[in-house]
Amino acid sequence: MNLSLGAGRWWLWSALCVLLLLLLGALVFLARAYEESRLARELEQVAVDMVTEIRSDLSHNVQALQRLQAPRPDDAAWQRGATALLLSNREILRIEWRSPELKIRLAQASPFLPFLFDHMPRSQVQPDVKQACANALRFAGPAYSTSYFLPLQEGRGQELLEMCLPLPDDGGFLVMTYGLTDLLGELQAREAYRSFSVALTESDGTRLAIAGHAARDRNTVEAVHLLELPGSAYTLRVDQARELKGLRPKALSSTLTLLAMALVGMLALLSYDVRKRLQTEARLGEALAFRKAMEDSLLTGLRARDMKGRITYVNPAFCQLVGLPPEALIGTSDPAPYWPSDRVEEYLQRQTSRQAGQPLPRQGFESEYLRSDGTRLPVLIVEAPLINGIGKQTGWMSAVLDLSAQRKIEEQSRTSQERLAATARLAMAGEMASLISHELNQPLAAISSYANGSLNLLQDPDQDSADLRQELEEAMRRIATQAERAGKVIKSVSDLVRRRERERSAVAPQLLFDGIAPLVQLQARKVGIEVQWDIAPGCPPVWCDSTMVEQVLLNLVRNGLQAMPAGDPPPASGLRTLQLRAAPAPTQAGSGRQWVSFSVTDHGSGLSDEVAQRLFTPFFTTKREGMGLGLSLCRTVVEQHGGALGYARHSPRGTRFSFTLPAAL
């Protein structure tokens, strides 16, 4: 993916979001302006209605006052009528009946404020009354004075208004005193005006009376209307909060504001989503580029096919294998252009079985492709189903390996193995010849020794004939025994090379020692070495091939004798001895089988570390006449019996070779 293109899309989206927010802001501003103007108009109408109702109430009071005077009442009736009028109209604080000279004939105070003029005599407001009555005579109707302030108890006070009505019959006047605060209070008590704050002010803005508790601030809307009365004029100001508690009268602006907030939230979420999408696309582009680079670098051919067998993807390695470009492969179906013509039917059957749901071999299968140059290419194909994101199979993915190099290596390996087998057969023949000659040396040496001894006996003139006959017979039997042993050695060596199972039986350790004793004693006497035989009491018989075990013992004894040449150790040291011992071996942990240990101990010069490391290596020897097969063959024989052959240094000098054999129990 082009990252600069993604960044450009992001900035374009951001610009559109900002433009949309500006349009929303302008729309909300216009809506609020409309709401403000509508609220101002409504409040202006409320002020007009209030002024109208105040005038109407004042007119009703005038009419009620006129009814009080007609027909001409007596004093008591007038008092009763005035009291009833005061009780029904709390804004009226006092009613007076005055003479043409404005002297008070009758007066009735409001029962709600009976002591209204206790702090200021009524005579002090006579100028206001005179002004109102003079205007009333001029207007020939009711007239109102300017307001004045009347102090009350505890530092309080009230703004009052006088209304004068002329009486045409006797030339007198009816004077009615209004409380401006009570007048507004009666108005504000009505249900339609409870949400407003109402104030009466003079023309210069001086507030005279107020009803309601709305604080004037920037969140308050006001409307002002002129209250004109005969003889005086006042200003009525109506205040209302922009938003009342629990109520949102600005429906349009509120709705638009909520919509704008919701849209801002949506734009924020969309911006976050777009940013995440661009980041994801960038990562996906990087992942696709990485996968493309990885697939292009593979030496393994990759091929994808849909459910109908059409090729949908190949990598460069596959194109190189078959020698065709991707354009010649993608979109092709069966038979594929790289199938050999003589194997098309076979491949079609395999493809049909795969489409029928037959499981694919996990290890893959071998096939053959035809390259564009006409050469055949052995391949290994490993296929797996292609699964999409919802778990549905959409085709197969194949990994194709070129087997031509492997076939060449296998052919070379096969040729090398044949050559190696021929060489091994020659080596085996030489090894058998060396083995037979090595193993036959001992019985042939024994036969030679017995034959030379017999000749010496025949040449002795002092030998008694009876003794001579007996000794010669014994020598002949020994020769026959060694000849028989030589035959068994040849058979045993042949079986050893062929790894055949030999006939085994239970043999007592004493019989094994007796079988080799004559030859051991004969060789030991030649080098002046004493042989010591030791069999532990209760030592059980062993399960073995006696001929092969005797051969092992003879090899170990011969090595021990050769380790002590003449003069080393000197005879006076008492160490020129060779010990052969058989004893029960400790039972191995976890095994209930019993073993017998055989050991051959000499007092030679011992073995160096270098020689000890290669002691059992075939064809390794420190003797000029040796072939290096003795200890190797001994270990082979012992291991075939299930035992183990080892060595250890002996104190004060020498070496102990020991091996184990299974007890015959």
UniProtKB/TrEMBL annotation:
Catalyses which reaction(s): ATP + protein L-histidine = ADP + protein N-phospho-L-histidine
Domain PAS: start-end pairs: 286-333
Stretches assigned to the PAC domain: 363-415
GO biological process: regulation of DNA-templated transcription
SUPFAM superfamilies, A to Z: ATPase domain of HSP90 chaperone/DNA topoisomerase II/histidine kinase (SSF55874), Homodimeric domain of signal transducing histidine kinase (SSF47384), PYP-like sensor domain (PAS domain) (SSF55785)
Residue span, Histidine kinase domain: 435-665
InterPro entries xrefs: HATPase_C_sf, HATPase_dom, His_kinase_dom, HisK_dim/P_dom, HisK_dim/P_sf, PAS, PAS-assoc_C, PAS-like_dom_sf
Domain of life where this protein originates: Bacteria
Ranges annotated as spanning the membrane: 12-31, 251-272
Keyword vocabulary terms for this entry: ATP-binding, Kinase, Membrane, Nucleotide-binding, Phosphoprotein, Transferase, Transmembrane, Transmembrane helix, Two-component regulatory system
GO MF term (any one): phosphorelay sensor kinase activity
EC number: 2.7.13.3
One Pfam family matching this protein: HisKA
Protein name: histidine kinase
